Structure of Inorganic pyrophosphatase:
Amino acid sequence: MPSVLRALKLRTLAAPKLPSPQVLQHQHQHQHQQHQQSQWSSNRRGIAGSAPLSRLPRPTTAAPESSSTIITPPPGTQTPPHSYPHPHQSSPQATGHFSFSVVPTPPYSPSSFTTPLWRTNSLPKISSLRAAQIARHLSSDNNSTTTKMSTYTTRKVAAPHTLEHRVYIEKDGVPVSAFHDIPLYANAEQTILNMIVEIPRWTNAKLEISKEELLNPIKQDIKKGKLRYVRNCFPHKGYLWNYGAFPQTWEDPNVVHPETKAKGDNDPLDVCEIGELVGHVGQVKQVKVLGVMALLDEEETDWKVIVIDVNDPLASKLNDVEDVERHLPGLLRATNEWFRIYKIPDGKPENQFAFTGECKNKKYAMDVVRECAEAWERLITGKTAPGGVSTTNVSVAHSPSRIDASQLPPIPANQELPAEKIDSSIDKWFFISGASA
């Protein structure tokens, strides 16, 4: 028994003395201060010393990368094959193709470090611009557009790629004439114009405003009882631009132009919109004029006005024809070539150009627009015989052909029908001797 007591006494004497709670708190604070001072010194060495900046934590960013991720146009549009260089592809903003990558989120809390300001103020600006362009591209409205004057929508009748298919344009829900009721100018200064998209970029169906039908809806052109499609002339796919027309303009077939020595083609003035977004049939775009080419098509003057959507990212940089070559190199040459050869696969000869194919500047183009607007004025007021052109409208006050909207015959309600299947031969490529690849 005494030996047991001695053992317990010895064990008690050997046990360590525990510190009080106040001592523990003091030791913990001292260790924490030492750790913070050490971490602060380490960070200073990492910034001012030889350690690379890449070791610093990076914020999550969306940064451009060299490998390409194609952002496709909105549903319902076509994209060109990727096996050949499209004329627009020299400019990422012009093509609507973007590439980006996302740096993964780091496995630490952002609050555990201080990010240098020069890092937070650079890459996010680039990525936000790209993100905004992509969002704008993917969210482009598929059936309506807004101008400063009104909202225009489309009313579709029958399925695309059928003889019965029509696209009417409506203003505030009332059908109007695509030829006569939409104002040519979108602002009082007459520097911004309204354009009607007939054929979206990269498509083949030859759609156009019907001159003969009531309210001039957009329909597919017919030749020998069959729907017309333009052929793919290598390296092009369909139309190179959003192709359409200026409302309230007319190329008078009774007047021979003094410089082209050819009469007008009896159509609204043709327009090639070169912006990055793919349009849709019946869309009313606000554009500014950059230049004009004079195609001589079957001994008729067929003007092609080059324009850009005022909402395009490049619009502020494109103000005249020389700016197009500077920012979209090769596009004017490709445009000239396309109009020259596009009928050859159908057994027709090359088209010819006035001015040796030169694209005239903005001033000349605006003169052409005004001449065609004056010709339309004579047509709509009855000073020029309309021939087979339907001049019925619902808004031109001084026109003898104006009627009230209540007098319009019934037009079927909007029909969102799937397009009819087209022959696979429409996708065939034609290789034209003498065409530049």
